[in-house]
Design a protein that fits this description.
Elements (H helix, E strand, L loop, with lengths): L1 E3 L4 E5 L6 E5 L4 E12 L5 E8 L3 H5 L7 E13 L2 E14 L4 E10 L4 E11 L8
């Protein structure tokens, strides 16, 4: 599921791909990327976003195994290549689910003047219709 908002995008996904980690630019800044399936197209093809993040969420995302369910929020970016538009999301918030309707970890990028840090809130939340995050 995907929700487009004025200031960003929210995606709830049933599966993610393997995490690709690379370093970019002169400073060799770590970047983590993975694909998020968020629905089916008109012809039954998977629709997906390329998700990416830098530090401090890089360290968190690098540990998420392929196939995990995630809920991400961030800024949508688009680019065109060979006449086709591709969408990606720069992650500001990610929640990892165990796939059984329970959120097991929540991670949020907090920006301060002095530093960026990741807040990890470890809790188990049973999901039902009354407390879904969307």
């Amino acid at each position: 599921m995907k929700i487009e908002l004025k200031d960003g995008t929210i995606i709830a996904s049933g599966a993610i791909s393997n995490i690709k980690m690379k370093k970019i630019g002169e400073k060799q800044t770590p970047l983590a990327e993975f694909s998020i399936i968020y629905g089916k197209g008109e012809n039954g093809e998977n629709l997906f976003y390329n998700a990416k993040c830098f530090k401090p969420l890089f360290d968190v995302v690098a540990t998420i195994p392929k196939g995990k369910s995630v809920f991400v929020a961030g800024k949508k970016e688009t680019r065109e290549y060979n006449g086709k538009e591709y969408a990606s999301i720069m992650i500001d918030f990610i929640t990892v689910s165990n796939g059984f309707g329970e959120i097991v970890n929540k991670y949020e990028k907090i920006e301060t003047k002095a530093e960026e840090k990741v807040i990890e809130k470890k809790e188990t939340i049973a999901l039902d219709d009354d407390n879904l995050p969307f």
